[in-house]
Amino acid sequence: MGLRRILCGTLFLWVALGLALVAPTAWADAGPDEASFEDVRREMRELGDVLRKYGSEQRDKAVQQAQPALESLDRRMEALENTIEENWDEMSESARERSRQAMRELRRQRVVLAEKYGSLKQSSEGAWEQMRKGFMDAYHVMNETWVNTVREFRKETDD
């Protein structure tokens, strides 16, 4: 558990550092994006509730419920990349490098999440609980990183 918190904290710092230098005013103007982050928090809670309810015999239904959450995550990552690209010329070289590193780490975590999702889809009845927990843990780490990053940007743009 401690290692996961360290990794999550490290990822958050990279994302926050990389994005803090990407014109915070771009985030301040992004009203719909802020709403979508709140939607993602709600989706995460709902997905957790759904996956807890489904046993291994309802695996296919649970997997169907997880797919929209993954698609939402992919859209958020794409929007983040677009924001970085739009502000690239105004960024310092160090900000560009931190942004590259942050996106690389987010992509790596997305691959981990995809692997957990694949395991969830293929899990046997006996392995269902373990696979479900692994997927939820990976999704939770990814989601919390985004939520914390948005909170940090809101603080910076409010100052």
CATH class of the domain at 57-158: Mainly Alpha
Helical proportion?
A: over 70%
Low-confidence stretches: 1-32
Q: What value does the average pLDDT take?
A: 69
The value of Rg in angstroms is 17 Å
CATH topology of the domain at 57-158: Four Helix Bundle (Hemerythrin (Met), subunit A)
**Count the helices. How many?**
6
The largest β sheet comes out as: none
Shape category: elongated
Proportion of β residues? Answer: under 5%
Fourth CATH level, the homologous superfamily of the domain at 57-158: Nucleotidyltransferases  domain 2
Gap between N and C termini? 34 Å
Strand segment count: 0
What is the structural class?
A: mainly alpha
Could you state the order of secondary-structure elements as H and E? HHHHHH
Q: Please state the second-level CATH architecture of the domain at 57-158.
A: Up-down Bundle
Protein described:
This protein has 159 residues and is mainly alpha-helical. It has a domain at 57-158: Nucleotidyltransferases  domain 2 (Four Helix Bundle (Hemerythrin (Met), subunit A)). Helices cover 86% and strands 0% of the residues. Helix 3 packs antiparallel against helix 4 and helix 3 runs antiparallel to helix 6 (128-158). The model is unreliable at 1-32 (pLDDT under 50).
